[in-house]
């Protein structure tokens, strides 16, 4: 406990130092540095434009239409893409754009809590909304979602607990199991549960993303599901 509180004190101290520095800078600027609302608006536009450009620069963007066809034609798809392909941040937004969130949420599981939080923050930024509104996350002991949340990032454990309350996952139209090759006990149990959901719900979509090595194993497990490669 003592070490933790000392660490917290150090953090608070750092924050205090930062705030003091910022105030000092502002005082020095004497108001000259304050932007007019017009300038603020244009810089916000530039920022959002660059976010949009960044989205279009990702490898997954080049195969967006083919991906849509495969997902519409198959209940289960295994997607293979390297780190940086954009699959984690973009596929949830694509599902939303393609109308899948009209009848439920798009859920995306992450192997680690930190990933669930940081990816949700990035996607919320791209969607120009606050975390916990249209895009949110849920990890153990912390639920940053609301009634309007259509894209939800979470750990495998969180989704597994949801299946205990609702074994057909009726509030979801699609679940993306991201980085499924980084498996845990939760992941393995979820595979079985989700296979059952797919069998019972014709309207449900399951997307499994994986590193190249394991893709065929996952495809076999789900009854020879198609494998989609992001170049």
From TrEMBL:
<feature type="domain" description="Helicase ATP-binding">
    <location>
        <begin position="68"/>
        <end position="231"/>
    </location>
</feature>
<dbReference type="InterPro" id="IPR002464">
    <property type="entry name" value="DNA/RNA_helicase_DEAH_CS"/>
</dbReference>
<keyword id="KW-0347">Helicase</keyword>
<protein>
    <recommendedName>
        <fullName>RNA helicase</fullName>
        <ecNumber>3.6.4.13</ecNumber>
    </recommendedName>
</protein>
<dbReference type="InterPro" id="IPR011545">
    <property type="entry name" value="DEAD/DEAH_box_helicase_dom"/>
</dbReference>
<dbReference type="InterPro" id="IPR027417">
    <property type="entry name" value="P-loop_NTPase"/>
</dbReference>
<dbReference type="GO" id="GO:0003723">
    <property type="term" value="F:RNA binding"/>
</dbReference>
<dbReference type="GO" id="GO:0016787">
    <property type="term" value="F:hydrolase activity"/>
</dbReference>
<keyword id="KW-0507">mRNA processing</keyword>
<dbReference type="GO" id="GO:0006397">
    <property type="term" value="P:mRNA processing"/>
</dbReference>
<keyword id="KW-0067">ATP-binding</keyword>
<dbReference type="InterPro" id="IPR014001">
    <property type="entry name" value="Helicase_ATP-bd"/>
</dbReference>
<dbReference type="GO" id="GO:0005524">
    <property type="term" value="F:ATP binding"/>
</dbReference>
<keyword id="KW-0378">Hydrolase</keyword>
<dbReference type="GO" id="GO:0003724">
    <property type="term" value="F:RNA helicase activity"/>
</dbReference>
<dbReference type="Pfam" id="PF00270">
    <property type="entry name" value="DEAD"/>
</dbReference>
<keyword id="KW-0547">Nucleotide-binding</keyword>
């Amino acid at each position: 406990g003592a070490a933790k509180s000392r660490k917290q004190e150090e953090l608070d101290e750092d924050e205090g130092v930062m705030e003091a520095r910022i105030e000092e800078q502002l005082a020095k600027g004497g108001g000259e540095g304050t932007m007019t609302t017009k300038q603020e608006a244009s810089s916000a536009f530039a920022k959002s434009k660059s976010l949009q450009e960044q989205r279009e620069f990702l490898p997954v963007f080049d195969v967006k239409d083919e991906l849509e066809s495969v997902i519409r034609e198959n209940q289960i798809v295994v997607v293979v893409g390297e780190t940086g392909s954009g699959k984690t941040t973009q596929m949830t937004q694509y599902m939303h754009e393609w109308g899948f969130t009209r009848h439920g949420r798009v859920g995306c599981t992450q192997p680690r809590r930190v990933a669930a939080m940081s990816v949700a923050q990035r996607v919320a930024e791209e969607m120009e909304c606050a975390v916990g509104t249209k895009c949110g996350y849920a990890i153990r002991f912390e639920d940053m979602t609301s009634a309007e949340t259509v894209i939800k990032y979470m750990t495998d454990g969180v989704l597994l607990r949801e299946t205990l309350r609702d074994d057909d996952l009726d509030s979801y139209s699609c679940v993306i199991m991201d980085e499924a090759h980084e498996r845990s006990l939760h992941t393995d149990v979820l595979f079985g549960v989700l296979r059952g959901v797919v069998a019972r719900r014709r309207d449900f979509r399951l997307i499994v993303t994986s590193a190249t090595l394991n893709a065929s194993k996952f495809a076999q497990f789900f009854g020879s599901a198609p494998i989609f490669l992001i170049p």
